[in-house]
Amino acid sequence: MAVILFFDAEGQTFTWDEHEDNSKRVTRKIRDWAERNGFDRIAFWRDKKEPHKLFVEMGGTKLSYWVPEHIFMNGDDTSVEEQLDYARGAQRRSVAGYNKFDS
Questions:
Q1: N or C: which end of the chain has fewer CB within 10 A?
Q2: DSSP annotation string for 26-47
Q3: What's the pLDDT at 35?
């Protein structure tokens, strides 16, 4: 089963307790997507300067691609999968050496 983690600006894990029903559904959707796409772990890192941004880590690489926090609080299934598909594209560019052009 794929591991889905959320990190705050200090690097501590956290959960979306105040939005529990939606966040559980979104986390399940992320886990399903990760397993279908061959990722054992996906992490989201909250930005220190702009806390509404959570940067995506896939395949052991922290990407320059971020997902807005509202996706985790109330995102519908389509928007969750779209964000993950975009992140996967960023991850593939990073692996291919194009990450320096993504910033």
A1: C
A2: HHHHHHHHHHHTT-SEEEEEE-
A3: 96
Maximum CA pair distance of the chain? 39
Question: Could you say which DSSP state residue 48 is in?
Answer: S
How far, in Å, are 1, 43, 50 from residue 54 at the CA level? 22, 9, 9
Rg of the chain over Cα atoms, rounded to whole angstroms, equals 13
pLDDT tens profile 44-57: 999 999 999 999 99
Asked if residue 31 lies in contact with residue 4, where contact means CB atoms within 8 angstroms, the answer is: yes
Rounded to whole angstroms, the Cα distance separating 34 from 26 reads 12
Task: For tokens 């029903």, name the residue.
Answer: 21
